[in-house]
Specification:
- One of its GO terms (molecular function) is succinyl-CoA:3-oxo-acid CoA-transferase activity.
- This is 3-oxoacid CoA-transferase subunit A.
- The protein has 237 residues and is of the alpha/beta class.
- The protein has a single domain, classed as Glutaconate Coenzyme A-transferase (3-Layer(aba) Sandwich), CATH 3.40.1080.10.
- The chain has five helices and eleven strands, in the order H-E-H-E-E-H-E-H-E-E-E-E-E-H-E-E.
- The strands form two sheets. Strands 1, 2, 3, 4, 8, 9, 10 and 11 form an eight-stranded mixed β-sheet that branches.
- Strand 3, helix 3 and strand 4 form a beta-alpha-beta unit.
- The chain starts with 10 loop residues before the first helix and ends in a 19-residue tail after the last strand.
């Protein structure tokens, strides 16, 4: 079994080989399902010039927002960037390149990249700045734009459980981008809440097969809430 055991015991080993100017695909949705320890390790390494592909860029001082503090991100490919004041400042100052991508298109770019599909047509973005300069083709009388898929040098992913072979299970909102991100990295590193023995995850419950995963590390997660919303008590206006 040792030859198939993908568990590593340090974050240094988990991100060994990450270098300046690489592309990193990061799972997560808002602050939910983000690989907190792997992001912190990238900050600690000081790796610069990164292109980061993720639904969003965390918040000030947490998540991918940590990597903005020392200007480690050169380009951000994402669909939502509205929770980060430092992100806004770097964008307006010309220090950060941003490629805004519709959320569904971004998910499909990752999925297609992992499936070996170089590009696909979608109606989303046609007739808007998103579609400018892209090939257009009609299908059944409707125009579609050609979108290229995405792959990364590294994919960093957060899962609920994984076995030692890298088979992963995600929970709830963490399923939004992590499964697609996991398939799209040349090296995929999964940070998990629990590592379980072989056979502990029924095959029917596996979300990401271990064939996509190179390294698994046990993490500790703060699970910070991005924006707390609670119901009003009776009598409140």
């Amino acid at each position: 079994m040792s030859g198939f055991n993908k568990v590593v015991t340090s974050y240094e080993e988990a991100l060994a080989g990450l270098q300046d100017d690489m592309t990193v695909i990061a799972g997560g949705f808002g602050l939910c399902g983000i690989p907190e320890g792997l992001i912190a390790q990238i900050k600690k390494m000081g790796t610069k010039g990164l292109t980061v592909v993720s639904n969003n860029c965390g918040v000030d001082g947490f998540g991918l927002g940590l990597l903005l503090e020392d200007k480690q991100i050169k380009k951000m490919v994402s669909s939502y960037v509205g929770e980060n004041a430092l992100f806004e400042k770097q964008l307006l100052d010309g220090e950060l390149e941003v490629e805004l991508t519709p959320q569904g298109t971004l998910a499909e770019k990752m999925r297609a990249g992992g499936a070996g599909i170089p590009a696909f047509y979608t109606a989303t973005g046609y007739g808007t700045p998103v579609g400018e300069g892209k090939e257009v083709k009609e299908f059944n009388g409707r125009p579609y734009i050609l979108e290229e898929s995405i792959t990364g040098d590294f994919a960093i992913v957060k899962a609920w459980k994984a076995d030692v072979f890298g088979n992963c299970v995600y929970r709830h909102t963490a399923q939004n981008f992590n499964p697609m991100a996991a398939t799209a990295g040349k090296i995929t590193v999964v940070e998990v809440e629990e590592i379980v023995p072989p056979g502990a995850i029924p095959p029917s419950q596996i979300h990401t097969p271990g064939i996509y995963v190179n390294r698994v590390i046990q993490g500790k997660f703060e699970k910070r809430i991005e924006r707390r919303v609670v119901a009003k008590t009776q009598g409140e206006i």
